[in-house]
Please model this.
Amino acid sequence: MAMNHLSLLRPLLYQSLVRQVRHTAIVSAAVRLPLLHHSLSSKPAICSRFYATKKAKAKSKGQAAKVSINTALVEDIISLDEVKEEMTAVVNALKEDFTRNLSIRTSPGALDHIVVTTADGKFPLNQLGQVSMKSPQVIMVNMSSFPEATAAATRALRESSMNLNPEVDGTIIKVPVPKVTREHRENLAKTAKQFSNKAKDSVRKVRTNAVTQVKRAKEGHSEDTIRLIEKQIQQMADSFAADIDKQLTAKTKELLG
Model:
């Protein structure tokens, strides 16, 4: 009798067990899914990388880190102040050349830079002759104080970079002022470029001599110190070269109008 009742209850027990297993599986899946979703969504945040933009890269590439070193640490190797003074002198000489040789404004002082070579040596034109304006178109040089230098002064005027064609009348040299044409302005701009190139060459020469002096002092000093000094000298040269370019740009704009 008991066996018969057990046979009747077996299907009911089986169905109850199946329902319980299914419920457990559903609940477990419901618990795991949010965790899985959270894990997947968090991965991009962990693995994501930040890339520099092209603009940022270009800016970083164009700006070299500036080197600064205490002069007291290298004074027994080289005087950086003297190197700077030499480069400064080059730029100042360029400015003076621009003012004296490349002016489109006419005045007696425009001939002050002319150097006359005589048998007794080289002298500025204004020390040998009296320079004055006869008219807005003519500069007159009176050589009566040193008549023997008249020919040399005439030659110096003609061979200058000012495109002058002096005329001699006894001890008087008449210098017609060239008409300021577009061609004349362009020639002056070319001369300005030549002056600036020579100035850059002079700065490079100062830099080369300074670096050579530093290299000779390698013994007794660390390689890092030598390298830092060389980098600072290079930065000084680059800075003065940039200043020369700035001066040239301004002068070219002035000349070409």
About this structure: The first helix runs from residue 2 to 47. Residues 11 and 17 are 10 Å apart (CA to CA). Strands lie at 115-118, 121-124, 130-135, 138-142, 167-169, 172-176.
